[in-house]
Amino acid sequence: MSAEMSRRRALIAGAVVTPVAFASSSIAAVQSPAEAYKAVAAPADDSDAGLLQLGRLFETAWSGLNEARSLFFELHEEVLASAKKSCPGLPECREDWTLAHEREFLEAQGRAEEASEELRRAEDTMNDGFERCDNLCSAISAITPTTIAGAGVRARAAMYASPRWWEKPHDEMEFDQLHSRLLIEALCAAAGLPTNSNDWVRS
Predict the structure, then answer these.
(1) How far is residue 172's CA from residue 33's CA, in Å, rounded to a whole number?
(2) pLDDT in tens, 14-33
(3) Could you tell me where the DSSP H helices lie in 15-98?
(4) N or C end: fewer C-beta atoms under 10 angstroms in the chain?
(5) pLDDT at position 196
(6) What is the pLDDT of residues 85-124, one digit of tens each?
(7) Which of 90, 93, 127 is nearest to 4 (CA)?
(8) Cα–Cα distance between 138 and 54 in angstroms, integer?
(9) Phi and psi for 53 in degrees, rounded to 5?
(10) Is 202 exposed, middle or buried (0-12, 13-18, 19+ CB in 10 A)?
(11) For residues 39 and 82, what is the distance between their CA atoms, to the nearest angstrom?
(12) Which pLDDT value is given to residue 194?
């Protein structure tokens, strides 16, 4: 199983998203941290101009990734429905399934996934989005900000890298995770940037 497939399986198991329209043009075409920084006219000066430009590229890529993920999950739900329909003997409630039922459904799911070219294209687009966001996040994290605005860009990158911290309300979080999240949110707020996780994970 490829790394991309493993990541997809983890997402399917742990995330719930609301489908939205997909627009591939909203994903920034940046392939590596080095290429990402070439998109900036000059290295970050004392006004953090370069870092802010990377931040704009990152926000565009992150938004596009979420749209790609939503499309993928929408299509995957259709595949699951098709797989279940092809197994007429399955009990309606999954809690009533036996191991034989589970095996029958998983085999049907695999066949349905393999047959869906649209799902494969959506998965490829989603994985491209992950790569672009990861690379931009790494480029941003390599720069030390000198302004509140620049620190806000770094905070948004940290938010992207720690999505599970936004799955729970404050009173259900571990002490260290809560205060890291509060610091990130405070920096984003001070910079006038969103303090939510950009619909990365919906709890």
Answers:
(1) 35
(2) 443 333 333 333 334 444 44
(3) 33-38, 49-85
(4) N
(5) 82
(6) 999 889 988 899 999 999 999 999 999 989 999 999 999 9
(7) 127
(8) 11
(9) -65, -45
(10) exposed
(11) 44
(12) 87
The full length of the chain comes to 203
And the tokens for 1?
Answer: 């199983």
Q: Give residue for tokens 């994903």.
A: 27
**The whole model's pTM is what?**
0.71
b or e along 89-102 (b: 16 or more beta carbons within 10 Å of the residue's beta carbon)?
ebeeeeeeeeeeee
Whole-number pLDDT of residue 198: 58
CA distances from 101 to 7, 9, 95, 96 (A): 25, 20, 11, 9
Q: Which residues of the chain have pLDDT under 50?
A: 1, 3-6, 8-9, 12-34, 36-44, 199-203
Structure tokens of 136?
Answer: 């931009």
CA distance 122 to 203: 23
Token pair in block for residue 118: 């649209």
Q: How far is CA 99 from CA 92, 95, 96, 104, 106, in A?
A: 15, 11, 10, 9, 11
Name the residue among 4, 139, 120 with its Cα closest to residue 61.
139
